[in-house]
Fold these 2 entries.
Entry 1:
Amino acid sequence: MLENKHLLGLEGYPGKDIQTIIETAFNFREVLDRPIKKVPSLQGVTIVNLFFENSTRTRISFELAQKRLSADTVNFSASSSSLKKGESFKDTSQNIEAMKIDAVVMRHPTPGAPKHLTNFIDSVIINAGDGTHEHPTQAILDMMSLYEKFGKLKGLKVGIIGDIIHSRVALSNIYGLKIMGAEVTLCGPPNLIPKNISELGVKYSKDIDEVMEWADALNVLRIQKERMGRGLVPSTREYRSFFGITSERLKNHKKEIVIMHPGPMNRGVEIDGEVADGDQAIILDQVLNGVASRMAILYLLCGGKKVEGE
Amino acid sequence: MSLEKISKNVMLKGGTIIDPYHKKEYKSDVLIKDGKIFEIGDFDPPKSCEIIDCKGKIITHGFCDLHVHFREPGREDKETLQTGSIAAMAGGFTRVCVMPNTNPPLDTPESINFIIKKAEDAPIHIHPIGAVSKGQDGKDITEMGLMHKEGAVAFSDDGLPIQDGGIMRIALEYSKLIDVPIINHAEDECLRDEGLMHEGTISTRLGLPGNPDLAESSMVHRDLELADFVGAKIHIPHVSSAKAVDLIRKMKKHKDDVTAEVTPHHLFFNDEDLISYDTNLKVGPPIRTENDRKSLIDAVKDGTIDCIATDHAPHTIEDKETTFDLAAFGMIGLESCFGTVNKVLCKDSKMDLMDLISFLTNRPREIMGFDCDLFSVGSSAEIVVIDPEQAWVFSRENIKSRSINSPYIGKELFGKVQYTISRSHLYKSV
């Protein structure tokens, strides 16, 4: 089974466990192709989806994964602002655990919040995104998708494009890919790249064409509209001109590269619609692999042993 | 651990006196009568006298802290002048300066008088620092002259750095009227932005927004230049970065009225300690890199830094036991101070104990113009007895503050305060 009780992030995560999760996820992928897409693996296990920040796809993906595994699920949503006024984070968490639950899937706007939660409750905690820190399940589904496409991760050349400094997807992908032996180059406006990023063992290039020439796959991050408002990026057209994965750019590069995007996409900004819908994109495979990956993670952390013992 | 009013004579017997003011170290007994030093030397104990065995211990001046937050008025649930005084005595402090960021802030002669009156019966000496600007809004300067008459010893908008260089100039120039230092929490708010910890590799790894060192150093630079330009006294609080140290060192070569302090926590921790996301380590300015920490130690050793100040900042459990973004800035620091700085500076960095004591006693007193010759017969006893060699683990029981936001709990410290005598009170830590 897995070394760690929780999945808080991929920094320092054992490579063999990432491998186990991905392999298990491929097994669950087969379940998703069956006419009846449900297994009893987590029967009797209660999971709370604790979402302190809005999320559509991650939450649906987790909920589906839980339902496919026959777990009982409860959803809790709260905007962080309402929490500021009322009950504390600690009280909320302890109240929910007092109702006898087995695992918590948590999304929170603050880095470190899932780790903080481990101080208060004993349940298994799975980080579904903590602010600008990590989003480990996204990175695992991204790696699973790369694995599906290339049959390996070691030695793979992956470009991560966009707003790195505010991206939990980027940080988890950097950690995960480095652990699995892939090479990573970041590309984006210099003010959206952390100053000391080279210390994490990745390269940076400001030239998107150079990165496209080098890479086997690109993970294109969503450029958030709020960033424009803060003046971090001058305009969408300038961004598209320098960093957008446009149809022209893709055509100019003879090398076939795989295009990924964690969604939601801004078509016509960081990625052209034609590219997103094109043959080189595996964006919808990522979504399906997301359900399978989360099934694998939930199964391995919440019930694997129980089922094996039966 | 107890605090009592001294009702009879007290004799400190068999200890070694370190007098940091006269730079003397000698074995001698001390007799305290009616709260005053009556005799120092070799004598028989008088009748009705409490004898404190000081064998193997150091007897020295009570510590003086230029930077504490006692939260009164406004947040008496965090600390009061009374509870803060006991925390101070537990840490060996007999004299403190309280920062004015209370609610309401200490920005009028009346509010300064409130502290003076309220502190009359406190077991330690408490001096208020007045706000530089009315309401600490960084716009209009306060009635510094009248506040000084009421007892304000310096001026600061601590916690709310004066962003406008023009206002800072006015404040510095005006302060020459009363010849006291301006203390400006040096942090450019635009550069700090939403920063929650030092900007570097660790902040990237933790996904926490960073606060770069130049947010401090650029403002230290401005303040030093301004103070030099107008010829005023400036005191730089809680220096945290190597860059700021370099600027202070340079300015000190040609200007006398520049002083600076460092906190125990900036000497003790580095940003790698934040990997735990411990909110007790969330402080302003932030704890920086090992390189910064080392340069702060060097700055103490070469005198670029003038004194140690705790920036004792009590907060409730609720204010700290929350997510990192919502947690309040600051930690308590009085009770743990000597054990931390003695460990870092004397044990680990081979600094002389006499020099370290100086950073806690006569050097901060000199900055504020307080009496430094504390072992003269007839003066009110401000004395601390310490065991500089005692290794101990800081625990919840050692905290006398009303708040417990300390990252030192469970940490091994070196050197312990045993007794503190101040204003006819005796605090026993043993």
Entry 2:
Amino acid sequence: MAVYYASINDTAKGFALSREGIKMAKELNMTSKLPFLYYALGENYKAAGNFMAYGETVETIMALKDSMYAATSAEEKMKMDAQYQLGEKENLILRQKLEIANKNYLIYGSVLLLILAAVLAGLFFTGYKKNQQIKLLTMQAEQKQAEALAVRSAEENERKRISRDLHDNIGAYATVLLANTEQLRKHAATADVKQAVKAVSENAGHIMGSLQETIWVLNNDLIKVTDFIDRFKLYARKMMESYKAVNIIFEEMIMNDIILSPAEAFNIFRILQEALQNVLKHSGSQNITVTVLSNNTFIVSILDDGKGFNTKELSSGNGLYNMQYRAKEAGYTFTISSVPGETAVLLQKNNLLSG
Amino acid sequence: MPIKIAIVDDKPIVRSAIKDKLYASADISIVLEACNGDDFLEKLRSAAPEKFPEIILIDLEMPKMDGIETIAVGAMLYPAIKFIVLTVFDNSEKIFEAIKAGASGYLLKDDTALNLTEAIINVYRYDAVPMSPAIARKTLGLLKTGFAGETENLSQNKILSSREQDVLRCLVEGLEYRQIAERLFVSPATVRTHIAHIYQKLHVTSKAQAINLAHKNKWI
């Protein structure tokens, strides 16, 4: 405005306005406006031709500008300082934040680590517990096994002891008894004494025979079919000494030499003995065939060409019932079929290979 | 001249029963009695020539030195002596071991006097007593797996001839000499000879083994 007055050369109004402006600006401490006001004043001095005042005004402006520069730079500096300090603070805050964050991380990490450790420990502990449990179970199983083994070995020892006892004592006495009866027979004077001695001798022989079979069973925990039938051949051969006219043959088809338990072997052996005795005593047959088949099925049969008998008539109270009972006990099927000229006793056990 | 025999059994009662059975026979003379293998070998050492046994009846289960060891050592030290196993119970496993150790067969203690006498004479004259089906089967089995391993020097004469194998198969079937002879179209004497050979071939216990046993029992 004052510059306008100066340009239209109305300097009086320009002076007044500039001076008033300067005064106001000084009062209001608006230093930044002062150069412009002084400039307006200076222009008015120039228009008025007062170059001395103009020069002074210009100097004032320069001084003002200098001071203003200094002021601004101080202000700037302050501002910058403040900004710097702020930055510093921010930095500090950031750092603190970082530190806090770091601390947090540390805390979180520690917690996480703790949890992980706990989990691991837990896992380890359960694993350990499990291991301990397994160990305990294994130990228990081992103990059980050892116990079973001990029982088995005790049983084994007892069986051997009984067998040895029978062999050494009863066997020895039975041998002597038989020898004695033989002597007696030679010296028997009368017919009835001879008869009595013969009976004693036969009974002693039976004791010996039974004893041998019992020892055989006691001595073996497992009996092979071949061993079984070979023993029956010996028995048959001995029986045949009293039946010279009868012919006996053995037929074997042993593809699988199965194992019989002692009890099983004992029962089957007794059945065969009984069957053979029946044939020899009652059938009047000339030819006997003993057949053994051992594969998936185990079959033993005694076939004779004697007169046969009615299988229905012989129901109980005789050897047949015993044979049937023994067969059942051993887990065998027992069948007997008879027509004149062909009687068959058959013992059978199935599914041996399938377990 | 009666056959001189010895009885080796740990039970006096059994020895006397066997003696009773054999006394009646003019063909047999009992020259020595012992209660175990140790005792037997000891007595054999100091036996006078006229009292030296030719055939030994021996029990298998005895204290100190059992039948099988005694047979192995005795057969090595005195090859001329023949051993017959005398047993209450025909445990084929043990009898088979005894035969391999050098026994010429086995008899049951409850055999009749006649059977015992006959068997002793058979062993003396023909070197053989009948072979049971179980022993015959084991012999065939041994043949299958081979005699190798049983002796360190397997000689050709330990291998069974096909005829001997035929005889063994007949024995497994439970046939007697007479029946085997009929089946194979030979005389019973031939069958007996075959069986004697089989027994000889079964004597497979090695010398080294016998020497070890003798050492163990302090007999050499």
